[in-house]
Design brief:
Layout lengths: L10 E5 L3 E6 L2 E6 L4 E7 L5 E9 L4 E5 L2 E4 L10 H13 L1 E13 L8 E12 L12 E6 L3 H10 L3 E2 L2 H12 L1
Length: 180
């Protein structure tokens, strides 16, 4: 063991097509394979509305309301796709909106205790509706455009309907309220 790697080497416990479970010291965690990054979007309309998506998430066992997000570098031939291009692509694909301005904000862990995944957040504003959204042929996404002033009661109503609410929405709301 080196001082830079006090837990010792990684041991692969299982590897699938998209994920690998590893152990390092006493830690077990997941690594995502075949991507160059993960992007998360905070899309805000000119009317001060936050654009959210909803989709069924198998690990959660229910529909989840969340910020639009996606993978970069996961398309054959586009393995080195810049994060800004992936963010613009995912925004339009999932929501049907195109951003007039897309600003990189920060990068951070998606689940620091169970995965090595890092998400880079982008604030998207000056939005223009250019399509229906809803995702690609493998996704069933519902788009919600919610006034930021009424976001909390709207999210409470969604939770009462049995949907899970991704807490990253609240970080997105903070950025939207403080940086726009």
């Amino acid at each position: 063991m080196s001082p830079l790697d006090p837990l010792g080497p990684k041991v692969v416990l299982h590897q699938g097509r998209y994920l690998r479970l590893v152990r390092q010291g006493t830690w077990e965690y997941v690594e995502r394979l075949g991507i160059s990054g993960i992007v998360g979007l905070i899309p805000v309309t000119p009317a001060a509305e936050l654009v959210l998506v909803e989709q069924y998430r198998v690990p959660s066992g229910c529909r989840v309301v969340e910020l639009p997000a996606g993978l970069a570098g996961d398309i054959a031939g586009q393995e080195h796709e810049p994060l800004e291009l992936a963010a613009a692509r995912e925004l339009e694909e999932e929501t049907g909106y195109r951003a007039g301005r897309l600003r990189r904000l920060m990068k951070g862990p998606t689940s620091a205790g169970s995965s090595n995944s890092q998400m880079t957040f982008f604030l998207a504003d000056q939005l223009l509706k250019v399509g229906a959204g809803g995702g690609d042929e493998h996704e069933d996404i519902t788009v919600h455009v919610v006034p930021m002033a009424g976001l909390w009661p709207w999210l409470q109503a969604q939770e009462a309907l049995g949907k899970a609410i991704d807490p990253k929405i609240f970080a997105g709301l903070w950025f939207a309220e403080h940086l726009l």
